[in-house]
Design brief:
The complex is a heterodimer of chains A (about 130) and B (about 180).
Chain A (H helix, E strand, L loop, with lengths): L3 E3 L7 E5 L4 E8 L4 H15 L6 E11 L1 H19 L3 E9 L3 H13 L4 E6 L2
Parallel strand pairs in A: 3-4, 4-5, 5-6
Antiparallel strand pairs in A: 1-2, 2-3
Helix pairs in contact in A: 1-2
Chain B lengths: L4 H8 L3 E9 L2 H15 L6 H21 L15 E9 L2 E11 L3 H12 L3 H14 L11 H9 L4 E6 L4 E10 L1
Antiparallel strand pairs in B: 1-2, 2-3, 3-5, 4-5
The chains are: A alpha/beta (about 130), B alpha+beta (about 180).
Chain lengths: ~130, ~180
């Protein structure tokens, strides 16, 4: 499968989806007006990846900001990962947040309350 | 006398003004406003925690305008009528205030009012629970937000939303929203 790499822009995050390495990374800010347009190809990629996933998938989510329009798309990404996990593949989710950012910590908890994969909450120091 | 847009805008700009914009709320305008915000706030001595909250609220407010405004009525004298909205960020003592204003058709009043009153009536825990419920259950809308915007603002600020509807004419209302962040 083709690796997806998107460089960070003012409103969209850095993205790297690499099937060979079993790596799913989203970093930076996700505040586009039209988040579906941005996330649809990523969700489609995960759909395909789910057919033949790596035995172990590492997911790193390191967001500085995200808008409510992105929040549902991010949930959709987690839902795809949950399916992969349900099929017996290992999926590790690392949710990063800055040490004083209680909102981003809580956002991780929101997803964790919906998705049946344990999250590793990782506090980043300055 | 009906609603006076200039007076409203002037009033909102009183105090310690950080940024203001009135006109067409395009995607580029949102980008420029956020960039301006960051340039100005990087010099502020506020905690990063507060800066981030203000940034988040600003994003939601601007995109709320972007997605939901109605075009102003024909006889209102405004240059940029397409997606017209106004936003003012100012500092007022210990807190920040984001004020937005936009024209909406009269029939939307009750749905806007109901939504805000509902969110305002909830405790912090209830806001959190409802946010999760909406996130988990509601369908994707073309606009993407699915009704999370107001909930998100209230949740992050911990403050109630203040709003006013000003009668413009028989068909239109000016919707003014104030969000406080401390």
């Amino acid at each position: 499968m083709e690796t997806i790499i998107r460089e960070e822009t003012l409103k969209t995050p850095f993205v790297k989806f690499d099937s060979d390495k079993g790596l799913v990374e989203i970093k930076g800010r996700s505040i586009p007006e039209n988040s579906i347009e941005f996330y649809k190809p990523l969700i489609d990629w995960l759909d395909k990846y789910a057919d033949q996933p790596n035995g172990r998938t590492s997911v790193n989510i390191k967001l500085e900001y995200f808008n409510t329009s992105s929040s549902k798309c991010i949930l959709d990404i987690f839902r795809k990962l949950e399916l992969i996990h349900k099929k017996g593949n290992e999926v590790e989710i690392n949710w990063y947040y800055e040490e004083d950012d209680e909102d981003m910590f809580e956002a991780g908890e929101d997803y964790q309350s919906i998705i049946n994969i344990p999250f590793k909450m990782i506090e980043m120091e300055d | 006398m009906g609603f006076d847009l200039n007076n409203w805008y002037k009033e909102k700009k009183q105090g310690d003004l950080i940024l203001e914009y009135a006109g067409s709320i395009s995607s580029d305008v949102i980008s420029d406003t956020l960039t301006e915000f960051e340039a100005k706030m990087n010099q502020s001595e506020d905690l990063r925690r507060v800066r981030k909250k203000v940034y988040n609220v600003l994003v939601e407010c601007l995109q709320n305008l972007y997605h939901h405004v109605d075009e102003p009525p024909e006889d209102v004298e405004i240059d940029e009528k397409d997606r017209y909205g106004a936003v003012v960020l100012s500092r007022d003592g210990t807190f920040y205030r984001v004020s937005t204003g936009n024209y909406v058709k009269k029939e939307k009043i009750s749905s806007i009012k109901d939504r805000i009153d509902q969110v305002n009536s909830l405790s912090d825990d209830e806001v959190k629970m409802l946010y999760r419920e909406v996130l988990n259950n509601s369908e994707f809308s073309e606009k993407g937000g699915g009704g999370l915007g107001m909930l998100d603002i209230v949740r992050k600020t911990g403050n109630k939303l203040e709003y006013n509807f000003f009668q413009v004419d028989n068909d239109y209302i000016f919707f003014a929203l104030d969000v406080y962040i401390s």
